[in-house]
Amino acid sequence: MRLARVFICLALLSTSAFAVEPGEALKDPALEARAREISAELRCLVCQNQSIDDSQASLAKDLRLLVRERIADGDSNDAVRAYLVARYGDFILLKPPLKTETVFLWATPFAILALGGVALAVSARRRRGLAANIASDLTPDERKKLDALLDA
Amino acid sequence: MIVETGHYALVLALALALVQAVLPLWGVLRRDGALMAIAAPAAVTQFIFLAVSFAALTHAHVVSDFSVLNVIENSHSLKPMIYKISGVWGNHEGSMLLWVLILGLFGAMVALFSRMMPDDLRAAVLSTQAWLGSAFILFILLTSNPFARVSPAPLEGRDLNPILQDPGLAIHPPLLYVGYVGFSIVFSFAAGALICGRIDAAWARFARPWTLLAWIFLTLGIAMGSYWAYYTLGWGGFWFWDPVENASLMPWLAGTALLHSIVVMEKRDALKIWTIFLAILAFSLSLLGTFLVRSGVLTSVHAFASDPQRGVFILAILVFFIGGALGLFAWRASALKSGGIFAPISREGALVANNLLLTTSCATVFVGTLYPLALEALTGEKISVGAPFFNLTFGPIIAPVFLLMPIGQVLAWKRGDLIGAMQRLIIAAVAALAATRVLAAMHGEPVVALIGSGVATWLIVGSFVEVFGRVFSSGASLVVMFARGVGLPRSAWGTAFAHAGFGVTLLGLAATGWGVEKITTIKAGDVIELGPWQVAVQSLDTRPGPNFRANIAPSLIMSGGVAIATIEPARRYYPSRQMSTTEAGIATIGLGQVYVSLSGENPDGSLDARLYWKPLVALIWLGALIMGFGGALSLSDRRLRMGVARRAKAAAVAAQPAE
Fold first, then answer.
1. Same domain, yes or no: B106 and B13
2. CB contact, 8 Å: B250 with chain A?
3. Is B479 part of a structural domain of the chain?
């Protein structure tokens, strides 16, 4: 069931392709490393949440070659990403860019953490007040008895 | 005939579930013992009918009865027997039948093993469970009937998806479902507590073993699924932040939080409202996961909109139960008074911090999974939320949990001593630093791997500081210490093992940073350097299988000219579905693995291959097994064994005159 995503990719598999095939790699290891880094954050558009670096779909292969082509032409990492976003939209980025539509996506986790922290701090303070109240509720007589018990 | 019997048994199970849903609840409201007493036998009988129904479908698959649509679509007469059986739940209809079977199983287990519970609470719990059962059985009968016949019957079936023809399918879904659906009983306990107004420490004691049981299976199920993905997908990854995976991770995070807050409720009568809320949340997330996986909404929001029958049905179930439970919660929980008081620095305080971080990380997964769906439905804009997002959000939120776990364990209840706790943990800190130094000398960079393994060591050693503190003392003989160790409550050992298991998993994750990867073409006679090993390709062959043919590349793993292991990576082609699968060749050396997977054939006859050396990778799943073992130890604790309540009461009565 968790492999459902793979079905789609395999269904689209033309030949028995493979994530990053030997023939694709750039000669210069530094450039190839950059290509891998970029590929890991680009989505194989026909798969579910698989990067083009991992995907076996033929589209992913085309995209991998495209990324390497741009890098070989001297594009910076950002320029390669911008080029792909211009063609395919934000959908291709596995890390969604921060903009109006995604503010809630990026902010919600930290907002919940902060709100939860504040709520806990408030309730801890209230509990402390409660504890103080309970302690002061004792009459002097009770206090004496309690001390005697505690000393025993 | 057997197929019709199965169908009929399912209808009878629905009838029984409806009886079990309505009459005991009415009994609870009218305080009528006779009506309440119907719940337990109804739950057991309902389970028996579900089992008959499931057995009938299994029989149809085993004998390859191609007059049944479900068998045609998912089976093949040549398929090996294990996959004929596991193929029963390798499809939508069958997996839903397994879903309700486990739902019924938990109801029957509560009916049989929770005799010590107050009658009204038990009736209310079983009634809620039966409401769930009725809804899902109805879903199967109306939208996903696995018993539908076809006439004329074809001679051969279309075979099971090759990816699913793996022992993983026999193990992973049943484990995962027992965990996933197991939280239903915790949900029912929460609803029962709200209905009966029994939200107290005794409730926590009744509900805790069930939470633990579901959690153990969910832990093992997720780990098994991850290992399955690791060895079938052919590129060595084991977690993808895929919505389907997230769907199982969310209940796990909420369930883990619940497991900790329910302890506070049981021991200190505090966090009651929060615990009930988490009990509702954990199963609500299971329901959400079922909706995501079963409605088709993940494949495409538009596909869902055009063929919405199943999706809308599950959505209605989801809204009814989550909405109903939260409504009940809002109505009844507000009357609760808060219980035990504690200082911020205390065991309770640490568990509250744990709960904050776990639920926030759960919310992060929730937002990351659903945001793209919501955005597309609302604006039509498509975005992707993948691993890089979760690394930046989930990562920093969950990281403090690793650091806090050992500290929380050594803090006292009510009011703890932080400096004292840190002093007791010095040994764990020393071990962490030492491990980091040793690993830095052995493997070096990256720094992330070093930090991760240091934190993991802190966690593993720190997990045992508390129990060792209770066992070791200077001057005590070994015999005395052994006796002390045996005499400790098993739940203390359980906690230590479960926490340490988490650390072991973390160590395995950290070590992925030291992995070696080679992408190359291979042919017979090649020797490829791979980290400390050499992979010698013996030959490239083809081999026929029962319903596939395979390309194989038998290879030796060498160390300095000596062969230490053999592997046989393969690529299978299944003609009936025109699909290929990768069977990675994996050799476990120590705790690391050499992983070789094959792909396309080149014109010169060589094969494309990916080769990995993954040091300590086995720890990722071994850690989950240790977590499960810790959970099982804790479950076997005398205190939690079902039926102990009466003995405890007798002991309390006996103790009184002696005062």
1. yes
2. no
3. yes
**How far is residue B54's CA from residue B430's CA, in Å, rounded to a whole number?**
55
Same domain, B509 and B521: no
Q: How far is CA A71 from the centre of its chain?
A: 26
- CA torsion angle for B575, B576, B580, B586 (degrees, to 10)? -100
If asked whether residues B12 and B146 sit together in one domain, one would say yes
Same domain, B479 and B355: no
Q: Kindly calculate the radius of gyration of chain B based on its CA atoms and give it in whole angstroms.
A: 27
Provide the pLDDT for residue A14: 34
- Chain A residue with Cα closest to B600: A16
Q: What ipTM was estimated for this complex?
A: 0.80
Residue B184: inside a domain, yes or no? no
Concatenated DSSP letters for chain A? -TTHHHHHHHHT--SS--SS-GGG--SSHHHHHHHHHHHTTBB-TTSSS-BTTT--SHHHHHHHHHHHHHHHTT--HHHHHHHHHHHH-GGGBSS---SGGGHHHHHHHHHHHHHHHHHHHHHHHHHHHHHHHHHHTS-HHHHHHHHHHHH-
Instruction: Determine, yes or no, domain membership for B481.
Output: yes
| Residue A11 vs residues A15, A56, B20, B272, B297: alpha-carbon distances, Å | 11, 10, 45, 50, 19
The kind and range of the H/E element at B563 are strand B562-567
User: Among B100, B130, B152, where does a domain finish?
Assistant: B152
- Side by side, the strands of the sheet bearing B562-567 are B527-530, B533-537, B555-559, B562-567
- Top pLDDT among B44 and B269 is at B44
Put simply, whether B228 touches A (Cβ < 8 Å) is: yes
* Residue B104, beta-bridge partner list: none
> What is the number of structural domains in chain B?
4
The reply to whether B491 falls in a domain is yes
Q: What is the DSSP letter of B269?
A: S
Q: Residue B477 has what DSSP assignment?
A: -
pTM: 0.89
Chain B contact for A124 (CB, 8 A cutoff)? yes
- Same-domain status, B290 and B196: yes
Residues B503 and B521 in one domain: no
Predicted confidence band at B41 (pLDDT cuts at 50, 70, 90)?
very high
Do B530 and B444 sit in the same domain of this protein? no
User: Do residue A3 and residue B371 have CB atoms under 8 angstroms apart?
Assistant: no
| CB within 8 Å of chain B, chain A residues 42-71 | 43, 48-51, 54, 56
Q: Report pLDDT for A134.
A: 59
Q: What is the pLDDT of residues B389-431, one digit of tens each?
A: 999 999 999 999 998 898 888 888 888 788 888 888 888 888 8
What tokens appear for B421 in the block?
């706790």
C-alpha distance from residue B540 to each of A142, B569, B581, B582, B595 (Å): 88, 10, 17, 15, 17
- Shared domain for B486 and B430, answered yes or no, is yes
Structural domain span for residue B479: 398-513+626-630
